Amino acid sequence: MQRAGLHGPEDLSIVGYNDIPFATRPTVPLTIVRVPFDAIAAAAVDQLIDLIAGVPTSAWSFALTLIPRRTTARTAGLQAATPNRHPSPSTAR
Fold first, then answer.
1. Could you tell me which of 3, 48, 57, 89 has the fewest CB atoms within 10 Å of its CB?
2. Is 21 contained in some domain?
């Protein structure tokens, strides 16, 4: 980024996935999306047990948490893009 002459977050925003220790380094604290892996793993085990027992299962989703740090900023004068909306697997039938 520096070799290209870019400066964050003015020229480029960077977002990481999960809150690894590197993300909190004082030089450039990285904006991250925190994922609830413990809850996902527990739900997957519960669903697997239900599948083995023949119990009907359903789709589930989990809330992710955005932890804004110094690698992202609002863009002056631009509106936020509208995210693509895709049906969840349970409603796409």
1. 3
2. yes
CB 34 within 8 A of CB 64: yes
- Return the closest-CA partner of residue 31 out of 13, 10, 45, 4: 13
**Domain, as residue range, for 51:** 15-67
The pTM score is 0.58
The answer to whether the beta carbons of residues 69 and 30 sit under 8 Å apart is: yes
Domain-embedded: residue 81: no
Query: In total, how many domains does the chain have?
Result: 1
H-type alpha helices, the chain: 37-53
- 18 vs 22: CA distance, rounded Å: 10
Residue 4 lies in a domain: no
